[in-house]
Amino acid sequence: MLFYPSAITLSNRTLDYVARLIRRHRTSIGSRWRRLSSNRQALLVLAHLRNGDTYQRLATGFGIGLATAYRYIRETTDLLAARAPILTQAVGRLASSFSNYALLDGTVVRIDRCGDRDRLKACYSVKTRHHGITLQVLTDPYGRLAWVSDGLPGSVYDLTAARTHGILDTCREAGLQLVADRGYIGAGEGVHLPYRRYKNEFTPGRRAANRAHSAIRCLVERGIATLKNWRVLTRVRASPHRVTTYAHAILTLEQRTRS
Predict the structure, then answer these.
(1) DSSP class of residue 188?
(2) Model pTM greater than 0.90?
């Protein structure tokens, strides 16, 4: 077997944060001994999230068993995901900001496993033409991640997903305006959408308004790119239920890095 050195494009600050989280958890549960130190466990988890390394590769590289690598990664990602902001917290911060508007969009995370035949059909996304889990993403006007939803089957459309998670009602109650694409047509008051293209009614004025709308809304793609820059979400090989945990753990790490 061959070994080679590798790197993770993260700062020591991120590693220190995760290691402190692990140390506090070990103290709280009274764990006396572990195969890896807190720093090494944190490095293991960050390698999985950022580089998308498999359990088997990580177990071999860190000199531990496959089951141990799985337990360490699951334990730490659960700890990180529990610290992600909920929808009302994120909307409250965005509503109290100077801009008082947010960007909303959906993305589909590709998966390898779906379970039974009914779930296989539900997870197929017509838009992306592969099986996946759909996530709703809220960012501030600069494209920085503010909130990521729980996962839904890939066949669920963006507007249905937004209504399921209560995003539209929560933002209306907080007085927060949303800028979104045509996938949210029919969302109602407080959601700003581009004009639809009709043959005889698409005037130069509407065309200019759509260009201005796109210039504002396109920054949400920066937030989605930030989320998917963590390679574990490129193609999730774990259970589809873990997509939500991964997304929330990444949100926590991204926000801790900015603060």
Answers:
(1) -
(2) yes
Q: CA 39, 43, 49, 53 torsion: positive or negative? A: negative
- Strands 177-179 and 101-110 come out as parallel
Q: CA 133 to CA 241: how far, in whole Å?
A: 9
Per-residue pLDDT at 70: 95
The conformation of residue 85, written as its DSSP 8-state character, comes to P
Tokens describing residue 148: 């990521």
Please state, in angstroms and rounded to a whole number, the distance separating the CA atoms of residues 23 and 31.
9
- Residue at token pair 């920066």: 222
Please give the angle made by the CA atoms of 193, 199 and 201, to the nearest 5 degrees.
Answer: 60
Residue with tokens 């930030």: 226
Q: Which residue is it, tokens 């249905």?
A: 160
pLDDT in the model for residue 31 = 87
Question: Residue 152 belongs to what H/E stretch?
Answer: strand 152-153
- Strands 152-153, 177-179: pairing kind: unpaired
The closest alpha carbon to 73, from 238, 257, 258, 240, belongs to 238
Alpha-carbon dihedral sign for residues 89, 139, 18, 237: positive
Distance CA(242)–CA(150), nearest Å, equals 10
- According to the model, what pLDDT value does residue 114 have? 74
Query: What burial class does residue 186 get, using C-beta atoms within 10 Å of its C-beta: 0-12 exposed, 13-18 middle, 19+ buried?
Result: exposed
CA distance 182 to 248: 26
With a cut of 50, list the residues of the chain below it in pLDDT.
none
Give 9's contacts (C-beta < 8 A, 6+ positions apart): 50
Tokens representing 212 are 């201005």
